[in-house]
Amino acid sequence: MEKRILFLNGPNLNLLGERQKDVYGEVTLDDVEQRCRVLADDLGLTVRFEQTNYEGAMIELIHEARTYAHGIIINPGGYSHTSVAILDALNAFIGTVLEVHVSNIHKRQAFRHKSFVSLRADGVMAGFGTDGYELALRRMASVLL
Ligand SMILES: O=C1C[C@@](O)(C(=O)O)C[C@@H](O)[C@@H]1O
Which HAMAP family did the record assign (predicted)? Predict the structure, then answer.
């Protein structure tokens, strides 16, 4: 059976490769998407990519994912540390949830050490740079295929 994965990137991740390159590196979100599409083809997974800067839009994309996705790979950006509402939406999603942070949030300011989304995530990648997205996709394949 076809396995479908939603990649959901939250606020400011559209600026990957441009903002704070010392923290987030030079790879853009388009690069990440291209790499993950190639890997997904190899692994036999179907992927959809979404990025939004709006909390409500993220929640609606998670609700919609309930109707078609087997897994969500999410980088909630700054909402990781603030959004009970995104946690609640993920709690209404039945499939596998993997959380990705490009930076190692535990090595940064104390307010980044806690992620509400981690209370739901089945696994968390942090500090592996943008490779974390591909690593999460590989993990998704091991869990789902
Ligand atoms: O926007 C981001 C990106 C981030 O989620 C990461 O990918 O390392 C870490 C968050 O603390 C930050 O607000």
Answer: AroQ
Q: State pTM to two decimals.
A: 0.99
Helices (runs of H) and strands (runs of E) counted in the chain: 5, 5
What is the edge-to-edge ordering of all strands in the sheet holding 4-9?
46-51, 4-9, 71-75, 96-101, 123-126
The CATH number assigned to the domain holding 73 equals 3.40.50.9100
Q: Please calculate the CA angle 42-47-66 and round it to the nearest 5 degrees.
A: 140
The domain tally of the chain equals 1
Q: Which domain holds residue 100?
A: 4-144
Hey, whose CA ends up nearest to atom 2 of ligand 1? 77
Complex confidence, ipTM: 0.99
Stated length of the chain: 145
Ligand 1 atom index nearest CA of 76 = 5
pLDDT for 65-79, tens place per residue?
999 999 999 999 999
